[in-house]
Each structure stands twice: as C-alpha cells, then as structure tokens.
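Final report, closing paragraph on structural work. Over the funding period we assembled a curated collection of sequence-structure pairs, and we close with a single example.
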Amino acid sequence: MKPIVLGLSIAVLLAACATTTSPTGRTQRVGGVSQAQLDQLGMQAFAEAKAKTPQSRDSRQVAYVRCVVGAITRELPASQQTGWETALFVDKSPNAFALPGGKVGIHTGIFTVARSQDQLAAVVAHEIGHVISRHHDERVTKQLGTQTGLGILGALVGSVYGEGAAQATTQIGGVAAQGLILLPNNRQQESEADVVGQQLMAKAGFDPGQAVDLWQHMIEVGSSQAPQWMSTHPNPQTRIQELRSRAGGLQPVYQQARASGRRPNCG
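Its predicted structure, as stored:
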C-alpha cells in the first residue's frame, strides 16, 4: 500500500503545481508550496543564518549595503518593494544571497571582489533576481516532485550555506539528487539571474557595465577563494562576454535612470 499512497501523493502534488513563464521566457514549474509557505521558509533559513554567523558591527559598511539593497528593491513592482531585511555577515568568503520573504545576506568577504557600489549592486541585483524569477519556488517544486522524503528547508538552507549544509539539513543520499536540486541554483537559473539582475541594476541607476568588472575580480581571486555558488554558475569567460554584450544594450536604460534622478550615492 505504501508505494500506492506515495504515488498518489506525488500525483496530487504535481497536479497542484502550475506552469508559468520566467522573466526571460523560460517555462517554469512552480507552486509546490504556497508563496506564504515559501516566504516563511525563507525567513526561517535567514534566522538560522543570523544565529550561526556573526553580523558586522561596522555601521559604515552596514549602511553601505543597505543603501545598495534599498536602491535595487525600489525598482521592484510596488507589491515587492517593502519589507526587505539586510544582514552583513562577518565571513571572509566573497558570497551573498537573497531569499523569499525579502531577505538579503551579504558576506564581508564580498568587498574583496565588489570594489564599488556599482559592483556590489551587480551582486545584490543578481541575488534578488533569483527571488523575483521564482527560482526558489521552482527548485522546491522540483525537489518535492522528485523525492517526497526530502526536507523543503534544505533547499533554502542550501541557498545560504551551500550543498554541504543542504545535505546535512535534509539528511538524504544520492549524488544525482544533490547535484540537480540541492546546489544553490543551476546554471540555467544563474544565467537568468544575470539577465534579470543586470536589467534591475541599470533601472536603479547603477552602471550595468560594472557587472563585467565584478566577474573579472571574481576570476582574479582564484578558485580557492571563490564562493560556493560559483560552482553552478556558467563558465566565467562566457559569462563575462554575455554581461559585456548586454551592458551595451542597457546603457540607454541606465542613462534614463540617471536622468530621472536615480543616482545612488551609497559610498
């Protein structure tokens, strides 16, 4: 009876899911959990991050990252603009993340590669791009449809701490499942977040060309210091070429934003 019940449970779950279109026109399967549940899971994962990692007491740096995050989130649809919380974690790894429920985490190590407000904006906009593109929803839905025994929270914890923490949280085996689902994001989602993020930063008045410089700095720091999420990103040189190509087309958007008074001065 158990296989039958399990099969029916999966069928009910998949029937409840929906097919939608991502910001770049890609077909997505979402709806494994409600948005309210997803937001709650994001907030829970963020609370765990704050409990495990010390936060910076450098008021200047904290104000700096909040300024950049605020400039980016003001360009979101009105329903998504408020309620964002930012934490600056004392961690040498050049990393950042954003979660459903309006949570953004920045590691102090990001300043080694994001050396200007525009480059930090490229990081922040990319991570927020994952949220507004419903990548967490997509990943959790796929996870639930693949193996009902997986813990939903593991997918979100993996966004913050990487594959190892996700594996520990969900306590499952299977290299294939971990590689396909529990890694923070897949290459397709990363490429999409690049597109969405670069558009978002340009609308906020940050130079989209600085995304190219950011990734050049990422390469300079070397693979030994590269963040966990780089393992699932597109080839760095290919990514730089694509970012550079899009930057040219986004210059009118950037210039219009500046002409309209969106001139972030975060420091």
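The two ends are 63 Å apart (CA to CA). The chain has one domain: 21-259. We thank the funder for supporting this effort.
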